[in-house]
Structure formats: structure tokens, C-alpha cells
Amino acid sequence: MYVLVYNPKARGNRGDKSLNEVIKRINGEYIIFNVLEIEDYGEFLSTYTIEDEIIVIGGDGTLSRFANNISHIENIKSRILFYAGGTGNDFMRNYKAEFVPYHGSVDKVIAEGDITRIMLNGFGVGVDCEVIERSQKARKKTKISYAFHSIMSFFSYKPTEAIVTVDGETRKFKKTWLIVAQNGKNFGGGMNVTPEARNNDGILDFCIVHNISRLKLLFHFPKVYSGSHVKLTKYFTIVKGKEILIKMSEARMHQVDGDVGIQPQTEFRVYIDE
Questions:
Q1: Is 217 helix (H, G, I), strand (E, B) or coil?
Q2: Which of 71, 170, 202, 243 could form a disulfide with 271 if both were Cys (CB 3.0 to 4.6 A apart)?
Q3: What mean pLDDT is predicted for residues 71-92?
Q4: Are 99 and 156 within one domain?
Q5: 205, 230 in Cβ contact below 8 A?
Q6: Are 76 and 46 in contact, with CB atoms under 8 Å apart?
Q7: Contact at 8 Å (CB) between 165 and 192?
Q8: Among residues 246, 243, 258, 261, which one has the least CA distance to residue 208?
Q9: Are residues 124 and 68 in the same domain?
Q10: Best CA proximity match to 191, nearest among 236, 155, 159
Q11: What is the residue range of 89's domain?
């Protein structure tokens, strides 16, 4: 039996549309659950056996929420599959298949900010949080609106200094706009911020945007969609590693898989849990 777990608020409150897409693609009996109504994930998962497949339908936030809620549960019997049913779907952009098995297809990454949690696709500290907060207030959530809110945030955000340590090697960056730790290639609904990233290669890809004026950042910003920004090494530093430690000179907000943290912090850590 298929167990369809969906988020009605995903895809701009059009989660039902994604649910119906999945129903058309499966062949067999199914039961439907609203992910927002699951209170005890251990009890929920214990109901199903190896013969059942649980399909989680939603965007990055929904999939990340599910992954975090089951992270402490051992001996999960059912196969868990993810389906892109959100607006950005950056995590699912890393795969060609429509249904992606959660276990075995993605490295286990831990992100530490104001709370500690599993990271599926990406972490960011800096101007991206302001972009997300602006976008969440928008009536329509599209690539165009995200780009618009990005530009607006570039005008209001105040860059700061940062000390970044990747696998024991420390560097100091001035006028830091953004630091991302990516398990996947994309963020922000398709921005190819770390083109060489792979979700299950045991390595994280980091991008630090620094020492660039507002006008130059606005000019070069569109290159993030194609991934050509990586050639501008003076402003975009790309590093690979298993762990990153971040110390900001001023407290800043952070996001994990598109969900903004609770309060500003000065220190962060993201690492692969091996």
C-alpha cells in the first residue's frame, strides 16, 4: 500500500495539486495523510511494514521537516520516497527520478545554529535569509518574485566580516554578504550556487560571497542561475570539505533548507555526520 504524506500549504497553498499528480502516477491502494497533522512520527511509522511505501510530497521545507522528525527513529520498516511538490524544489532538482528514496540517496548533514537539525539540501547565513523573509510575505512565490526580493534585499542588507574554517583551514573574509553550505547544487528556487555539488558524495560545497559592492553584486547576481559566477573568484569563493565553522563579527540570521532560524547568531557549524 502507498502512504501519501502531503503538505496542503506547499506550492503556494496548492499542495492538493501535487497530491493529485502522485495519485495519477501510482498503481495500487493508497491512504492520505496531512503532514501537518502528524503528531507522533514514531507511532505513525510503526503502523506500516516493509510492504508499504511512504511517499512524502512537498517542497524543501516539507521534506526537511519529515527528515528531521524521523531522524531519531530506528528500524524504519517502510521505504520512504520523496516527491517534488513545492515551489522551489531545490533538493529534488538534484535527481532525475520523480520518486527519490530518502535513505541512501543523500548524505546525513547536521546544521548547528540556534538549534541543531538535519540539513537535506542547503544552509545559508547572510542576505539570503532576508530574501526568504521577504518572499514568504509575497502573495505569489515565483522565480521572478524571488529575484525581485533578492534585489531589494541587496539594497537593505549590511555585510559583515566573517571567519570561516573548512576542515581545519581558516580564512577571514571582509564585507561578507552570504555564506552557504550546500549538499546539493541549487538554492532559492533554481540558483546554481554550487554547480559541482552532489547529494551523496560525502563532501559539502561552500560558497562565500564577499568583498563586493552592492552595485557589482546586483550586476553579477544573475550569473548564479547559470553557475558562471564561480569564475569570479575575487568575489565568489568556492570550497569543498566535510565541515565548516562560521564566526560572524555581528549576529546574523541563518536558514536550513529554506526555513529561517529563530534568532540571530554569531557562530554556526555544518558538517557531514559519518
A1: helix
A2: 243
A3: 94
A4: no
A5: no
A6: no
A7: no
A8: 246
A9: no
A10: 236
A11: 2-105
Residue 166 sits in the same domain as residue 267: yes
Residue 196's closest CA among 255, 244, 240, 258? 240
When divided into structural domains, the chain yields a total of 2
- Cα separation, 82 vs 94, in Å, equals 12
Q: Which residues pair with 164 in a beta bridge?
A: 171, 246
Instruction: Specify if 112 maps to a domain.
Output: no
For residue 178, what are the CA distances in angstroms to 107, 120, 124, 251? 23, 19, 7, 13
Grid coordinates representing 110 are: 547536521
Cell representation of residue 214: 552592492
- Are the beta carbons of 241 and 270 closer than 8 angstroms? no
The three cell numbers locating residue 12: 503556494
pTM, two decimal places: 0.91
Residues 6+ apart with CB under 8 A from 224: 188, 191, 192, 193
135: which 3 cell numbers? 518572499
For residue 205, give the C-alpha cell. Answer: 560545497
Q: CB neighbours of 134 closer than 8 A, spacing ≥ 6?
A: 149, 152, 153
Looking at the chain, the whole-number percentage of residues with pLDDT higher than 70 is: 96
pLDDT in tens, 131-169: 888 877 666 666 666 777 778 888 899 999 999 999 999
What's the CA gap between 267 and 112, in Å, rounded? Answer: 9
- Statement to judge: residues 89 and 126 lie in one domain: no
